[in-house]
Amino acid sequence: MSLLRRAKGTLIHRAYAAILRAGAISPASPAGYRFRRLGAGVSIAFPPGAIFGEQWTEIGDHTLIGERVSLSCGMGPGVDLGPDSILRIGGSCSIGRGTHIVAHQSIDIGDDVFTGPYVYITDQNHVYDDPEVPIGRQWPRNSPVSIGSGSWLGAGAIILPGTVLGRQCVVAAGAVVRGCFPDHSVVAGVPAKLVRRYTPEHGWHPPGVALAMTHQAVNHQAAS
Question: Within the chain, where are the H helices?
Answer without folding.
Answer: 2-23, 209-223
